[in-house]
Amino acid sequence: xxxxxxxxxxxxxxxxxxxxxxxxxxxxxxxxxxxxxxxxxxxxxxxxxxxxxxxxxxxxxxxxxxxxxxxxxxxxxxxxxxxxxxxxxxxxxxxxxxxxxxxxxxxxxxxxxxxxxxxxxxxxxxxxxxxxxxxxxxxxxxxxxxxxxxxxxxxxxxxxxxxxxxxxxxxxxxxxxxxxxxxxxxxxxxxxxxxxxxxxxxxxxxxxxxxxxxxxxxxxxxxxxxxxxxxxxxxxxxxxxxxxxxxxxxxxxxxxxxxxxxxxxxxxxxxxxxxxxxxxxxxxxxxxxxxxxxxxxxxxxxxxxxxxxxxxxxx
Amino acid sequence: xxxxxxxxxxxxxxxxxxxxxxxxxxxxxxxxxxxxxxxxxxxxxxxxxxxxxxxxxxxxxxxxxxxxxxxxxxxxxxxxxxxxxxxxxxxxxxxxxxxxxxxxxxxxxxxxxxxxxxxxxxxxxxxxxxxxxxxxxxxxxxxxxxxxxxxxxxxxxxxxxxxxxxxxxxxxxxxxxxxxxxxxxxxxxxxxxxxxxxxxxxxxxxxxxxxxxxxxxxxxxxxxxxxxxxxxxxxxxxxxxxxxxxxxxxxxxxxxxxx
Lengths: 315, 259
Known about the structure:
The complex is a heterodimer of chains A (315) and B (259).
Chain A lengths: L5 E3 L2 E3 L3 E3 L22 E6 L12 E4 L2 E4 L8 H14 L4 E5 L4 H12 L4 E7 L10 H4 L2 H14 L3 E6 L6 H10 L4 E4 L3 E4 L1 E2 L4 E2 L5 E5 L4 H14 L4 E4 L5 H10 L3 E4 L2 H4 L3 H15 L27
Parallel strand pairs in A: 3-16, 4-7, 7-8, 8-9, 9-10, 10-15, 15-16
Antiparallel strand pairs in A: 1-2, 5-6, 6-14, 11-14, 12-13
Chain B lengths: L5 E14 L2 E7 L12 E5 L10 E9 L2 E7 L3 H7 L6 E8 L11 E7 L5 H12 L2 E8 L13 E6 L6 E2 L2 H8 L7 E5 L2 H11 L5 E4 L15 E4 L5 E3 L6 E3 L3 E2 L5
Parallel strand pairs in B: 7-8, 7-11, 8-9, 9-10, 11-12
Antiparallel strand pairs in B: 1-2, 1-6, 2-5, 3-4, 3-6, 4-5, 12-15, 13-14, 13-16
């Protein structure tokens, strides 16, 4: 078995493959299709202090090589997650990272306190980037000061691995990554969905109830690839890439761009058994290329820095 | 709640044109076909392509041994592509998914209104009614005669067309209303366009035990994406069409997506 281990903060993952928040319920629902203990980590749906029913339909729409969604953080609430889902995930042998979202800064802290007390929650991912609810994410994640403040406050109460999920809907995502690092985050997820829109030209109505939604899928992969690369030049904490990953080649590509781990999301809707195939593909690639440690690929992009001067401009 | 669902590489056996732009594809699916119940659905996606990206939801039309069939009106990119697959070509099926129609009892009279691709449920319901010993009467509506699929089933079937080219001149709910003056069934089922379901709920939902198979945009069909909410009646929260439905008791739900 080749060495696919990667580290985010104090947390060692057996491989870089994680699920993206909100794309497989609480993780347990995947078990009909594969053994979730093969994953590096399972990331929960965004949890809020109180349960949320989510947005009115329509919540999803297909677009070219992608989809728009506006679910509105529908979830069972943090208490039920801890009481009902954690024991199930423990039984399934999953490494659990909880994703949290809130309307108020102090609620992020309360959520972090509750989850810090759960031994099975090994890490926390702060959703500061949901584009589909009025407050709760993107309002915080597009303001450097607020993002810094939330990370600082959560860091005080949560000592385990802390990851900040960033929005790509900013001009310089690397500034937000650097702010998260400065306040003690152990990693950043690059990135949440892109604000997008589609219209039904026969009814003249938006295809998503909230008019705009979050774009995901293969369509966003090159966009996110560039952001992972930019962020990798700005921070030294691990980057978790998330955007249009469907194949093992996508994982390798993101790692070469600078990612330490990856999150698979939209692909699970179409191929819920994809993780097993992806891991097998990586294993074969490592064997063929005689790669002993997968982490050796991280940031291995070969390019002539002197001949591409604009690459250095951000820093 | 649904039982276990399976991801299977299924093989097209044949595809027939059965009415205007309407097809039935028979597909060899030895793992899924034997466990499908009437009103359940499968998600179909294509091998080796990400465009179209999302799988398509189909109510299973019929099952026979290790094959199942899907009935669809080829209007979108996905359905057009499926209609063009040749015998031997592959289609990825995920299913059976969702909660189907309630169990039918011996001697029960059940009336079923269908329209458009909702007619898919006619053969599978007819087959399970024979097994259950219940009596079915279908009310099948279309815009015009050319869009009606000529099913070969033992149950009664009453047609209605908007242009009067076959059967009752008017829509299927109008026909049902007229027939309900003479007799009343034990249960009423509906599967078809949302306006038809909305009208069935309004006209009959509180009088007759009515079960409706809803159609909503859906990304995954498994409850992962939470993309297919159906409003609970008298409650601020939602069911998911893919898991709690697609068949719901009419009195349990409210329609939010206006026709």
